[in-house]
Amino acid sequence: MTDSADPKVPEHLLLNTWEPGQPWIERSLNLRFIGDWGRANFHKICSWLCCEVADRSGSQTRVAIYNVEHGGWDSMKAVFDGEADLCVVTPTCILPQALVGRGIFEGSPMPSLRAIGVIPQDDRMLFAIDPAFGIKTMADLREKRPPIKISTSWNNGYNLIGYAAAEYLKAHDLSPEIIRSWGGEMIYSERPEQSLERAWMGKADAVLQEAIMMPWWRKVIDRGMVVVPAEEQALKRMEQELNWPSQTLEANHFSGQAESMNAMDFSDFLIVVRDDLPEDIAHLLTWCLVERRSVLEQQFSHVPSKWSPVNYPFDPRKMAQTSLPLHRGAERYYREAGYISAN
Q1: Is the peptide bond before 91 cis (omega within 30 degrees of 0)?
Q2: How crowded is the C-beta side of 91, counted as CA atoms within 13 Å?
């Protein structure tokens, strides 16, 4: 660290948001980030980090943000393979399995993946259906065997939403094959809003999706669809077999939802890097993530936190509680800042 009186401080830093006492890297950086499909929240997070890092590094710093095709752990694989330096992934709860190649990561262990922090996002995966079918429980669904069209994301081996949806059905003793045997249909798409759009436009009878804070879900509920609670036994099965936890969906999250219910957790965004990312870069990224968090929070402050894609205000101590091991540069920042124990 240095101050503005130090002749080594480049002039362009003084013109940007850098201030004396803040970290900076003298050399110019060339970084590759992976966001989302191009217009959702991962890209916004990456863009924010791009700006903050560029304001605190060499004047020729360049940061590319790549779109993804599958919206899943393909971005993690790109980081592991050295094709990218950083990616954003959700949900955080199952990512430790990537280190050893279990679950959806079967056959592709990625032991060198590390984290620099968590962006908080309170999310669930829910199943909702047209009330015309008279389905109030998942047992009703299995018993009545209606020829319904279910809209969800596809389970293509990379899409974590589609994987979660497939496991959700399996835990309830259901499958695409069973749905089709009733005369029903699985309607697949890549992104959450694509699934939910089909539901609110009447092109699907039911939807199994995440992103419950987004307007797409409220449109589905306003159309009249009702959330069918997950079965406790199914949630326990997912936790035992997949280490996939459940969380409470509070009563009145949606209009007409009078009672709270447990649901499949789909929370939090994890910022993922590889263990050989230079320590000073990981440290600077983490400093920007935490110390400049108000800049990202302000981009969502016009939306109540409950309905925001990120849940502000961020708590730095919780940001340090990552499901993957911290990169040594990130760990150094959190220790120096007093957000994790020095022991």
Answers
A1: yes
A2: 25
Residue 306 tokens read as 């409950």
Contact (Cβ atoms closer than 8 angstroms) between residue 271 and residue 310 = no
Residue 245 to residue 94: CA distance in whole angstroms:
9
Region label for 82, one of left (φ > 0), alpha (ψ between -120 and 50) or beta (otherwise):
left
User: pTM for the complete prediction?
Assistant: 0.93
Q: Please tell me the predicted confidence (pLDDT) of residue 22.
A: 86
Contact 221, 255 (CB under 8 A): yes
pLDDT tens-digit series, residues 230-253: 999 999 999 999 999 999 999 999
The number of residues in the chain equals 343
115: tokens are 């984290």
Residue 333 confidence (pLDDT) = 98
**Closest Cα partner for 164 from 215, 235, 233?**
235
Q: What is the mean pLDDT of residues 93-120?
A: 97
- The burial class, CB within 10 Å (0-12 / 13-18 / 19+), for 194 is middle
Amino acid at 235: L
